[in-house]
Amino acid sequence: MMSKLSPRGATRQSMVQSKNKLKDSQPFSLAQHLRHHQSVLMESFARLTLYPLATVMTVLVIAIALSLPGALFVLLKNVESITDRWEQQSVIGLYLFSSLEDTEALALSHQLSSRADVERVDYISKEEGLRYFEQSSGYEDILSALPENPLPIVLQVIPKAVVSLETLPGLETLRADLEALPQVEYAQLDAQWLQRLASILAFGQRFIYGVSALLLVAVFLIVGNTIRTAVESRRDEVMVLKLVGATNAYIRRPFLYMGLWFGVLGGLCASVGIVLFSWWISQPAERLIALYQADFELLGFNLNNILVCIFISAIAGVIGAWISVGKHIRDMELQ
């Protein structure tokens, strides 16, 4: 039977194998180059399996760091989808100058009705406005004591476009155009609630981007610290490779693939967690939607989102490994 190697003997054997690989790699054809990358890729994965507990803990930390922005992204996507379905008839109220005569106001009303982007224009005279205000406010006695009607003529312009997040910029442009008319003192678009919602969604997007950036930095640090430990455990092997003339790219390659594996596995676990979270909250969310009798289907974390999550996580893992290995190689060269 073959005797077991001591740790020092195993390290020496690993260094000899690395030197043989280095010799065999000169010169590289394209096929040899691809086979070498494939071999290093599988060897890096095999090294992860040698330390299952540490590997699982690192992958889970990466998955947790990526799950939060992923879940927030799904939530924001559903809110945006709901708001896209909220459409109602918009009204632009034009408050004319008090000095404007009825004939001039009627002429302006007919002029606006002929616009291609206007559905119709409702004319509200000063008397109609006063009667409505008296009924709604309950101050009939006070208003009747006024020497003259203080209210202006109001034109209610109903655009052809319904108000929604997509049409809001165009409606705001129409409101600004109408307010620029010489007869109009003030123009108001009754979509303030939608403007507030658009501001909240814009804030939500930036918040998610900020949180995602911070958590990606956390992934860099997690992978970098793990790779630092791996480099330290193979310090003798790296020093020997430097002595026999190995390039930094050759030394860096297995650690980059290790960072790639950490990123891919972490992104995959994060995607599974987000999918399970979406499924978990889907039933109560659907019951809530049914109470409002809304025709809406919840959006989940689809295949494209999963691939993007894994890709971003893999890139973050490679970058973290690159930074960590590069620093350690520079430190070894200075010693």
UniProtKB/TrEMBL annotation:
Annotated Gene3D superfamilies: 3.30.70.3040
Annotated ranges, domain ABC3 transporter permease C-terminal: 211-326
Entry-linked InterPro entries: ABC3_permease_C, FtsX, FtsX_ECD, FtsX_proteobact-type
Localisation per UniProt entry: Cell inner membrane
Domain (FtsX extracellular): residue spans on this chain: 93-185
Entry's Gene Ontology BP terms: cell division
Topological type in the membrane: Multi-pass membrane protein
Keyword Transmembrane: yes
Entry keywords, A to Z: Cell cycle, Cell division, Cell inner membrane, Cell membrane, Membrane, Transmembrane, Transmembrane helix
Any GO CC annotation of this UniProt entry: cell division site
Chain ranges passing through the membrane: 50-76, 207-227, 255-281, 301-325
Domain of life, source organism: Bacteria
Subunit annotation: Forms a membrane-associated complex with FtsE.
Family: Belongs to the ABC-4 integral membrane protein family. FtsX subfamily.
Function, as annotated: Part of the ABC transporter FtsEX involved in cellular division.
Protein name: Cell division protein FtsX
Lineage: Bacteria, Pseudomonadati, Pseudomonadota, Gammaproteobacteria, Oceanospirillales
